[in-house]
């Protein structure tokens, strides 16, 4: 109370106020169960947290530290450390996430190449590194050097010919199967939560759900290892979603080192939001895009403080990755594009067409993927996850090898597609015929007729596109780490090249194929994930093409509109619904004309609400009530007749308090009266010792009237992060609405099965 | 009700629920005052809106349109148009804001040059345009051409010499004074709200405050014209803040064309948030930065839908501006930097130092500016705004002319500072000695010794820096349109050049002076406005330097930390407090241990709360209560004894309803009983006709218990945008907390004068 008094200047002091504060403050501070018993304030697994309560607990902690900090220098330093711990955690997350991403990149590089051959000078070198260290390479022949040997060269000393091809093909498939089998086994044995992209679950966790172990140390370790294996095995998966999961595991690990975050589920989620930003930041080398992704796509509660910290974490992570330099170009940017040619207004039309295509593809992808995943969940298919992975890997490897565009790693391919053809480019895509009789300079590429290589490349790319689209549908959602970003980007649109080559008059440097690939990628990703701003920012950070923000935006917004016309859910929300997580989406608008009274329990005709009274129930009564019901908490009323609300007691804390009292407090027996009032009356000397439980009573339960429209109730649940809300009419308690009730009601109004919401 | 029934699938229908919905729905739909009377649902000037109520009104509107859309094709088209009107408004705002920004840029260019001379071939050409059209210019002498004549050349036919200099000097001052006088007069006569940067007021308006006319058509017109005049007059002001105001005026104008936005203050604010993004977008050519600025700095309620729309508006605006092409370089980017040299880790230290400097400068600036503005408000100084402007303009012009760095327009200067010296650069800053004996290539500039021009430039820049710092303090807040961004950027730090020139070993291309200017600018702006992410994004969009995001971030975060250590308020918040606007900042954390009961009215010993009863007061009683109090609304209770809360009636609507009923409903006299109940009892035949007011009763008033901690109450007010909240204890009404009470309590706890919060 001294603190409070100090805070009042003599000028504006209000004696009433201070007295009131003192009275109530002491009422809160010095309650009857003086020692807090263990586990109070924690939540059960698969339950929803109460954001308001977490916030107020954090403020209490903060106040305690502030008041202590005036006592001694040591306490002052401790309070400073506490204030800075947020930034320290961010720094650590950034460092670890950046390092892990670098290690993963290097390992994937090596293992992808291992499927094709090995470096003789040092087996741990990837193809590129191997030839880099060899001095015999010329500029024309960068990919070929004696140190790097294909398996056929090494084993049977043949580099060309049918038998060598078949041997390489076979070993390619074998390696892929090994990697995939190892990955799926590791996941099944050590960390079942390490499977999938992780983003749906992280969204749910950030919205205030508890899934113990989902972000644990084992998950971190296994996910990192299996991610490398899976991406190397050639499955049509990106490492971007899983990198977000990995970063969130880092966030969870470091937040467990600081009691400020480990003991408060709300604060912990602030750290996790920032970690998600760091994850995207390292996945794409896009720190700003990462922050926006966290804001737009994953986070639920994103205060401005988290914005700054996320940005810091994202920058540190990106910077660490740059220092490790896995791409060997000392840029933050993964697919740096060199071209800066302007685009023309008329090109907006094909960009919008790309957007339409992306939207349609997104819708199709989500529908097919969800149908497949539902099938997996409900039929016998789901019982053989290892077999499923092996089969898909085998199919992928068999089909992928003959086509050079699917054989190599996805990010290499994207990098080639995004790039414009230079005069020295050796790629098949740039095989334009150089006519020596032409007077135009050699770098004026669009004028030259396309060589046969371009047409071959077209076909191969078209086949690659179809194959990737189909196989990705089956791959996403398997029991291995899987991401969508890079595969989605692949689904770019190359047909426009041909259309536009005829449209352009010769001599005009009019179309940049790489730009179309970039815009197409954005459109497809937009259709699948329904991101807009963060997507555009990620794309232009990824490529460094600040000029192309308008085309990217046009495609992203069109894609979102088109996809939204067929269904509002992005792939992550669809997976959340598929799993029945209690996720109250901020994007959904609830527009039905229902009232709180329609949603609250008990419904008409049901048994009345289970309540506690403030001073007339015995310990046994309470225990019976707890045993007979499975509610998470009970409203406390003055008496069963008046039904005037006093507060709300959590089930978990009631159980703990009674157990604790029976063990440690003498005289508390089954007959003891339970008091939730401030001052229990004097009891006759022979009566059993009363049990005073005001300490665990939430004196400020959230109430709405029965006439409150459900849209307001939904809004309150969303914005304040409530777990439950009591319904009153003219001061009398009528019922209760939990988050599950709200979600079930919303599902019902949207004509979905309300029983799909499974958790509380 | 048919709609509701249709929405239930036969599978999940719950008869209880539908019945309940029907009953309550009809209770709401068909109330007793069937025709809505005019002005219901509007707010008075200088009052706060109720966000929840606005939102629920919008949902009602939406529902009505959806249900109508099934009736006919025409209604269906109308509903589609309504759904698209948001995007249409964004498009229009983008187009108008971009156009206005382009026109302003062109006009400022012309008028700034008009102070020095005139173009003979066409007087409406600026210096650059004039010489552009002239064919006689060579590359070396871009700035000199015969068509462009200084005033001395034109009037006395002298271009050199003391008398010509004095004549030019005199005319420069004269023009500046003319412009400034014209501007201040226009503002005073036509649109007093057009003064200042506008950002503090826009923040307040977006948080839910009504200031009629602040975003009106007159303000738009006058602000645009005077902005040109003021910036041309050479005052140390940027056009960026005012451009945000102009864009918001555009937003307000277009939203008044669509009833969806014009009739709903909440929806209107969504449009205004997006308009603010468009304003920053055109001010800096930074669409993403604009959106983040709106999110981080200005907006209060920023749902994801607004994020997308803001981005769209910002892009359209930037694109329109690019099409107008006022800078003649067909880029979105204002100060495009050409250099892409990497920076070194060791440089982080000076960057952080720049951040510290920026933070200190920000604190100093805010303190001095607020002190000066307070002085202006409280002393006689404030009575002579015209004189003040004239004096400051005269001082600025007199001091600015002799120094070439202050004479030219601020954006030209920044553009020069940000740029690296090329071999062909004619700027004095690049006057390095070209030693022909040296073997190094000519473009390896850092090795060459600095020529005398560089040292002259250093001195002039140092003087310019000091002058700009001092004069900006006095200028910001005058009664003319004024922005801070560009002047703050100016305060860059050039000393590092000298330090580092010695530190670098010759031959190493180690320091990029332009980068230091950029980082210094970011640090200063960060110190003044306390932005972080949006600032960094704006800076790198402004310059196109994606590589320098880490240095920029380091400086911005350091600057914010340093400045926050001296005081949490940025310049805009400081001005909001100075003006006493009711702004509940999302960034402030309330950590005091007070309860709702300490803040609510009535306090202990005060008269009891003025309440209405549901069925026992006459029209006269109500009128007396309205006359005797000035509260904005009254709780309605069952009876004065029981104090059980039924609902809440707004003062404004009570007055309107009673007035309306007395005029139009027969039999409603002073003796009529006012009923807030659903079914008034049958009255004896002779008794006066009852007045049924359930229609205007808010049946879901927001309540908290008296034990609710104030931090929770503050959170609820912030997140739900409440206007007032009722306080109950075990079902009985105890008191009321308004937004003003909350703000006053917060001011009191922060040791400030609670009376400084002036509005409700």
From TrEMBL, chains A, B:
Against Pfam families, the record matches this protein to:
CBS, Voltage_CLC
User: Where does the protein end up?
Assistant: Endosome membrane; Membrane
**Transmembrane segment boundaries:** 84-108, 169-191, 211-231, 243-259, 271-295, 348-372, 384-401, 457-476
**Alphabetized InterPro entries for the sequence:** CBS_dom (IPR000644), CBS_dom_sf (IPR046342), Cl-channel_core (IPR014743), Cl_channel-4 (IPR002246), ClC (IPR001807)
The organism's lineage is: Eukaryota, Metazoa, Chordata, Craniata, Vertebrata
Q: Which family does it belong to?
A: Belongs to the chloride channel (TC 2.A.49) family.
Q: Does the keyword Calcium apply?
A: no
How does the record say this protein sits in the membrane?
Answer: Multi-pass membrane protein
Q: What is this protein called?
A: Chloride channel protein
Query: Which species does the entry assign this protein to?
Result: Chrysolophus pictus
GO terms (molecular function) for this protein are:
antiporter activity; ATP binding; voltage-gated chloride channel activity
The coiled-coil segments of this chain are none
Q: Which SMART domains match?
A: CBS (SM00116)
